[in-house]
Write the C-alpha coordinates for this entry.
Amino acid sequence: MLLSLVPSSACTTVDAGQDFQIADIVFDEDFYFCEVEPVLFKNSCGPGSGSDPAGGCHFNVTNFRLRDYSPLVGDSCQNGSPSITPNNTARDNYQAAQTQMRRDPDLAPLFNRPTGTTAHPRQIFAPNSPDAQVIRDWAERFSSQ
Protein backbone atom coordinates (compact mmCIF):
# COMPACT_ATOMS: atom_id res chain seq x y z
CA MET A 1 0.00 0.00 0.00
CA LEU A 2 2.87 2.39 0.75
CA LEU A 3 4.22 2.01 -2.78
CA SER A 4 1.06 3.43 -4.28
CA LEU A 5 1.68 6.73 -2.46
CA VAL A 6 5.13 7.22 -4.01
CA PRO A 7 4.97 9.20 -7.26
CA SER A 8 6.26 7.47 -10.33
CA SER A 9 9.59 8.77 -11.57
CA ALA A 10 9.22 7.17 -14.98
CA CYS A 11 9.32 9.55 -17.92
CA THR A 12 7.23 9.24 -21.01
CA THR A 13 8.09 10.41 -24.50
CA VAL A 14 6.05 11.65 -27.40
CA ASP A 15 6.67 10.23 -30.85
CA ALA A 16 7.06 13.22 -33.15
CA GLY A 17 6.56 11.08 -36.23
CA GLN A 18 8.68 10.49 -39.30
CA ASP A 19 8.41 13.98 -40.77
CA PHE A 20 9.39 15.93 -37.66
CA GLN A 21 11.08 19.21 -38.62
CA ILE A 22 12.08 22.34 -36.81
CA ALA A 23 11.52 25.45 -38.89
CA ASP A 24 14.63 27.51 -39.44
CA ILE A 25 13.93 31.17 -38.84
CA VAL A 26 16.14 33.58 -40.73
CA PHE A 27 16.03 37.20 -39.67
CA ASP A 28 16.25 39.83 -42.41
CA GLU A 29 19.87 40.31 -43.40
CA ASP A 30 19.46 43.75 -44.98
CA PHE A 31 17.68 45.05 -41.88
CA TYR A 32 20.49 43.66 -39.72
CA PHE A 33 23.22 45.37 -41.74
CA CYS A 34 21.37 48.66 -42.25
CA GLU A 35 19.73 49.02 -38.82
CA VAL A 36 20.81 46.50 -36.15
CA GLU A 37 24.58 46.33 -36.63
CA PRO A 38 24.91 50.14 -36.68
CA VAL A 39 23.11 50.21 -33.29
CA LEU A 40 25.51 47.61 -31.89
CA PHE A 41 28.59 49.48 -33.11
CA LYS A 42 27.25 52.94 -32.15
CA ASN A 43 26.77 51.70 -28.58
CA SER A 44 30.29 50.21 -28.40
CA CYS A 45 29.00 46.67 -27.90
CA GLY A 46 32.21 45.32 -29.44
CA PRO A 47 35.01 47.22 -27.71
CA GLY A 48 32.98 48.38 -24.72
CA SER A 49 33.05 51.79 -23.10
CA GLY A 50 35.59 53.29 -20.72
CA SER A 51 33.79 51.88 -17.67
CA ASP A 52 33.74 48.28 -18.95
CA PRO A 53 36.28 45.69 -17.77
CA ALA A 54 39.15 45.10 -20.18
CA GLY A 55 38.41 42.27 -22.59
CA GLY A 56 34.87 41.89 -21.29
CA CYS A 57 32.82 43.03 -24.27
CA HIS A 58 31.73 41.47 -27.52
CA PHE A 59 34.99 41.73 -29.44
CA ASN A 60 36.35 39.33 -26.78
CA VAL A 61 33.55 37.14 -25.40
CA THR A 62 32.82 33.82 -27.04
CA ASN A 63 29.05 33.44 -26.53
CA PHE A 64 28.14 36.42 -28.72
CA ARG A 65 31.28 37.57 -30.47
CA LEU A 66 31.30 40.58 -32.75
CA ARG A 67 34.25 41.35 -34.96
CA ASP A 68 35.37 44.79 -36.04
CA TYR A 69 35.68 45.56 -39.74
CA SER A 70 35.70 48.59 -41.96
CA PRO A 71 33.85 49.97 -43.74
CA LEU A 72 30.71 48.73 -42.03
CA VAL A 73 28.13 47.36 -44.44
CA GLY A 74 25.60 49.74 -42.88
CA ASP A 75 27.62 52.70 -44.13
CA SER A 76 26.65 51.71 -47.68
CA CYS A 77 22.90 51.32 -47.08
CA GLN A 78 20.51 53.11 -49.38
CA ASN A 79 16.74 52.70 -49.01
CA GLY A 80 17.19 49.86 -46.52
CA SER A 81 19.61 47.78 -48.59
CA PRO A 82 23.40 47.59 -48.58
CA SER A 83 25.10 48.63 -51.79
CA ILE A 84 28.14 46.46 -51.04
CA THR A 85 28.37 42.72 -50.52
CA PRO A 86 28.99 41.83 -46.86
CA ASN A 87 32.44 40.33 -46.34
CA ASN A 88 33.04 37.21 -44.22
CA THR A 89 33.54 39.22 -41.03
CA ALA A 90 30.25 41.05 -41.55
CA ARG A 91 28.48 37.74 -42.22
CA ASP A 92 29.98 36.28 -39.03
CA ASN A 93 28.51 39.21 -37.07
CA TYR A 94 25.11 38.65 -38.69
CA GLN A 95 25.17 34.94 -37.84
CA ALA A 96 26.23 35.65 -34.25
CA ALA A 97 23.45 38.22 -33.81
CA GLN A 98 20.88 35.91 -35.36
CA THR A 99 21.65 33.23 -32.73
CA GLN A 100 20.77 35.79 -30.06
CA MET A 101 17.45 36.75 -31.68
CA ARG A 102 13.93 35.34 -31.24
CA ARG A 103 10.61 36.04 -32.95
CA ASP A 104 9.41 37.35 -29.60
CA PRO A 105 11.92 40.08 -28.77
CA ASP A 106 11.05 39.83 -25.08
CA LEU A 107 12.70 36.39 -25.18
CA ALA A 108 15.68 37.48 -27.28
CA PRO A 109 19.06 37.85 -25.56
CA LEU A 110 19.91 40.48 -28.18
CA PHE A 111 17.11 42.61 -26.70
CA ASN A 112 17.14 41.55 -23.04
CA ARG A 113 20.82 41.84 -22.24
CA PRO A 114 21.61 45.33 -23.55
CA THR A 115 18.38 46.70 -22.06
CA GLY A 116 19.31 45.28 -18.66
CA THR A 117 16.20 43.09 -18.55
CA THR A 118 18.46 40.06 -17.94
CA ALA A 119 22.03 39.73 -16.71
CA HIS A 120 24.53 41.93 -18.52
CA PRO A 121 27.48 43.93 -17.13
CA ARG A 122 25.73 47.23 -17.90
CA GLN A 123 22.59 48.61 -19.49
CA ILE A 124 23.43 49.70 -23.03
CA PHE A 125 20.08 51.30 -23.85
CA ALA A 126 16.67 51.58 -22.21
CA PRO A 127 13.94 49.06 -23.16
CA ASN A 128 11.79 51.88 -24.58
CA SER A 129 14.61 53.61 -26.49
CA PRO A 130 14.84 53.98 -30.27
CA ASP A 131 17.82 51.58 -30.27
CA ALA A 132 15.77 48.92 -28.44
CA GLN A 133 12.96 49.48 -30.94
CA VAL A 134 15.34 48.57 -33.78
CA ILE A 135 15.89 45.17 -32.13
CA ARG A 136 12.12 44.76 -31.66
CA ASP A 137 11.55 45.65 -35.30
CA TRP A 138 14.10 43.04 -36.42
CA ALA A 139 12.06 40.36 -34.61
CA GLU A 140 9.22 41.04 -37.04
CA ARG A 141 11.43 40.72 -40.12
CA PHE A 142 12.05 37.04 -40.68
CA SER A 143 11.41 34.21 -43.07
CA SER A 144 11.25 30.44 -42.70
CA GLN A 145 13.54 28.26 -44.74
